[in-house]
Design a protein that fits this description.
This protein is an alpha+beta fold. It is built from ten helices and 15 strands. The structure holds zinc ion.
């Protein structure tokens, strides 16, 4: 009986090992196994193989003894069958759970909303991006501004980026021939806020604490983050600018509104300096700034603007984004441009077709 048990236990261990793939926690079944099986489990694999091999050789000899122990073996066989059924069920449960987890996980990570400068939440702000998946990674080839992952291939990198290829209201565009009307002023409700800075591999992004809003056309949009492009992605009557800052907002229904502020070479910009001062040393690690930021100081004095419907300018290129591009530019120093240029010499998506879209502008 003892030899027979050893054979059966070897067998159960071998089958258990198969039933348990890498995704299932190995500790659980072993803990539940019998005391003798536990000892077996702790034995080196080589020894286990030998045991199995020699057991096989002795199989014919054992058949005699087996008859004697048939009843006891039957009992053991029932136990083994039960044990295997349990192991398979556990394995299936684990597989199902991990499938659910994958299904739940979004294509990209939402930007960090709450920023506590004094006490940064570690790990929570790899915010690459954003809302924008913008900045999220998809597939083997990561999207970029040149080479294999460049703008002409964004749509092919991942099916989630299809709009980059087939969308018909994409951004950026060359803003021209706008209809001059009395545009409703954008109501900016920005206040000094905690912030963190992240180099997400595509741009420098600033995640701001909750509580900054714009309202326009009866909707309230909260500021999520802002980031920079060099040179400006949008053009105005064919003209490009040194840089642009995109302030990304979202309303309660998830609709996006981006305010673009064009940056031109001139005197140093206070808010930009505050951000550059807090540039993180490493990519994808948000650095919480010790001070608050007043984003009003990043806006031009005059609040006239161009507006049109477009998209995110980074994968997944989602459309239905309300764009508001400020007409008056804001100055930024050569030194400040150069600092960004060292990190991102060119991070602008090429112009997209306007395709008959209506553009309005403050007259
Ligand atoms: Zn942008």
């Amino acid at each position: 009986m003892r030899r027979c048990s050893a054979l059966l236990i070897s067998l159960i261990l071998a089958i258990s090992a198969q039933a348990n793939d890498a995704s299932s926690p190995p500790s659980k079944p072993i803990k539940q196994a019998s005391a003798s099986a536990k000892e077996e489990a702790s034995a080196p694999k080589e020894k286990e193989k030998e045991t199995r091999k020699s057991s096989k050789e002795k199989e014919s000899k054992e058949s005699k003894d087996a008859a004697k122990d048939a009843m006891a073996a039957d009992e053991l066989a029932v136990k083994i069958a039960e044990r295997l059924a349990l192991l398979r069920k556990e394995k299936d449960d684990v597989a199902r759970a991990s499938t659910r987890a994958v299904a739940r996980s979004p294509a990209y990570v939402a930007p960090v909303r709450k920023v506590t400068p004094a006490k940064p939440k570690e790990g929570s702000e790899h915010g690459s991006s954003a809302i924008i998946a913008a900045m999220g990674g998809h597939g083997a080839v990561h999207w970029s501004y040149d080479g294999e992952g460049g703008p002409t291939n964004w749509g092919k990198l991942n099916s989630a980026n299809a709009k980059c290829d087939i969308g018909d209201r994409q951004s950026p565009i060359d803003i021209r021939d706008g209809i001059r009307v009395d545009l409703e002023p954008i109501n900016f409700d920005y206040k000094p806020s905690g912030f963190n800075v992240i180099d997400n591999g595509h741009t420098i992004q600033v995640n701001v604490a909750a509580g900054n809003y714009i309202s326009i056309m009866g909707r309230n949009y909260e500021l999520l983050q802002f980031h920079f492009h060099k040179p400006s992605e949008e053009r105005v009557n064919g003209r490009s600018f040194d840089m642009v800052v995109h302030l990304v907002h979202k309303d309660a229904d998830g609709k996006l509104a981006v305010v673009a502020v064009l940056l031109e070479r001139g005197k140093a910009q206070n808010i930009v300096q505050q951000i550059w001062n807090n540039l993180p040393l490493e990519k994808n690690l948000a650095l919480a700034a010790p001070t608050a930021i007043d984003i009003n100081q990043l806006l031009p004095e005059k609040r006239d603007y161009y507006t049109y419907m477009g998209s995110l300018t980074t994968p997944p290129c989602s459309e239905e984004v309300l764009w508001m591009v400020m007409k008056e530019t804001v100055e930024i120093s050569s030194e400040q441009i150069a600092i960004f240029g060292r990190l991102y010499p060119m991070n602008a998506r090429p112009l997209q077709k306007t395709a008959g879209r209506l553009i309005k502008e403050s007259r």
